[in-house]
């Protein structure tokens, strides 16, 4: 089996605090993998280490079978990080041309303008682009060398719905060409729609790993919600068997539970004041919340 990315027991410690904790991960070539996790989970640190921009405190990382610092490996990698910084006094097309010149087999300028949706902006100054357009430029620069692996750290932040849809189509066509795509996102819908594999990270550790349907199946039916009467308290709900977390929105309460069958019976048995009871079908958003809550 040839892996695009191999992390073995990788940790990163900042001032005594573990940002990434013994992370082991193997990514097969041609996979679209989404790293999900709450703020501060360790996603960006992980990507920075894979890219060789940060040194792991311990553990080993291989990219395309070699070292992330090897120039031959680096030439086959593209990355779009969270802060896209544009070069002053260069137009969009000039910026893309500059990045193309770093690679031996770059994609053509028209192709890069097309996949990033920047055809009409090509003669604008890069610094004058909107936030969403600058992210699209960041994507064009990451794709410039026609990379085998492309890393996208929260790529669609600030993009409007149309740009996001177009971007998703581009990612899918890259995957069809056998490219490996690693993306981090807070948009679970994005991970569900794009990824072959979702890895959920919390507190620097992998807490779930599987296809979107496996992740959903793992937690299906784990949320019960209802409108609670004024006498119902968080303490009472937390004391029920299997309740992982209690979330309020006004008088509407969401119970995350490992066993909703048992929980619903207890709620009825103890005559809780409840209206409009729903057992949620276990969408990815709920699965993600349940996984994160149960691993905090
Ligand atoms: N340079 C640094 N020095 C000290 N601590 C850091 C540094 N960079 C990151 N951290 C800490 O490491 C942890 C992981 O951060 P990281 O940016 O990797 O998370 P993330 O999952 O990418 O979060 P987000 O979704 O908010 O981008 C956090 O607790 C963060 O505060």
Automatic annotation (TrEMBL):
Alphabetized UniProt keyword annotations: ATP-binding, Nucleotide-binding, Transport
PANTHER family documented for this protein: ABC TRANSPORTER ATP-BINDING PROTEIN
Database matches in PROSITE patterns: ABC_TRANSPORTER_1, ABC_TRANSPORTER_2
Protein name as annotated: ABC-2 type transport system ATP-binding protein
Organism domain of life: Bacteria
GO molecular function, one term: ATP binding
Pfam families: ABC_tran (PF00005)
Domain ABC transporter residue range list: 5-228
